[in-house]
Amino acid sequence: MRWLVLIATSALCLGIKIFGHYVPQRWLTNDRLQRINALIPIALLSALVVAEGVVQKTHVVLDHRLAGLAVALVALMAKAPFPVVVVAAAVTSALVYHLH
Amino acid sequence: MAPLPRTTVRDALSVSLTVGAYGVAFGAASVAAGFSVLQSCLFSLFTFTGASQFAAIGVVASGGPAAGAIATAAMLGTRNALYGIQMAPLLRVRGLKRVASAHLTIDESTGVALSQVPRGAEAVRVGFWLTGVGVFVFWNLFTLLGALGAKALGNPASWGLDAAVPAVFLGLVWPRLENTFLRVVAATSMVFAIVITPWLPAGLPIIATAFVAIVLGWRAR
Description:
The complex is a heterodimer of chains A (100) and B (221). Chain A has 100 residues and is mostly helical. Chain A has two domains: 1-53, no CATH class; 54-100. Chain A is 76% helix and 4% strand. Chain A is built from four helices and two strands, in the order ααββαα. In chain A, strand 1 and strand 2 (59-60) form a beta hairpin. In chain A, helix 3 (64-77) runs antiparallel to helix 4. Chain A starts with a helix and ends with a helix. Chain B has two domains: 6-175, no CATH class; 177-221. Helices cover 77% and strands 0% of the residues of chain B. Chain B has helices at 6-32, 37-46, 50-61, 66-91, 95-103, 107-115, 121-153, 161-173, 180-196, 204-208, 210-218. In chain B, helix 1 (6-32) packs parallel to helix 3 and helix 4 (66-91) runs parallel beside helix 6 (107-115). Chain B is globular and about 55 Å long. In chain B, 57% of the residues are buried. The mean pLDDT of chain B is 91.
């Protein structure tokens, strides 16, 4: 299953990139398509924050990960550089995990 | 040939090095999700687009089906096609070099290249290739280090890795939230994902959230 995910994801993502370099420019200049395409990463990445941060299987579970995520949010609001955001989230989450 | 514009080189290198941090996080998260060190490295070599890679392993880690992981990653990768449409007429390369330029077409290379437009066509090309190759080298090197590191560390929760992954996604979406409408899209997507979580198989609420983007993007603002 993991090999399938790896191979299919790589083939599709590379195929999409190559497609963009070879299609005639007018194909993808549709306004609606561009608007939706700009929103897709925002919608999916937001859903991924939730799915990885507060979900386990099919249940909403609030645990040590949420503490890490909250610290990441504060770090981002304070304009901290990206590595600081991730490390702060990990350290906080690990601390809460071990205190429990 | 004119000498390389120094600011262009500096922009490209600083972006490439910063991305290394994501690489460590990806390698570590990938191993924590049950992928081998080899598989993690192949991901970074051949998929080479960070958000899609994190999404694919994230869906697998949360117990989702392979199709959900692949579809989510592919949808996140569609923006690279639009970057390609913008970059192809600026790069004007053919054959294998064109395929290579396509593989290197990601957020960072396109961003640096387009920011060089005021400095001229040569700066655009230098910015694209330097950033693309630089990110490729560091992304793959750091993926390997992260994967080896995670393998040595063991239990991911013990090291906070399970919180590092959602923090990465938050860090990826954050700079995109430039105005109130985009923040509304993000908040709506989070609420939508939470609400549908108990009703769908694991991993599918993520791809279902594309619905929010389609509905909110349908009408011109």
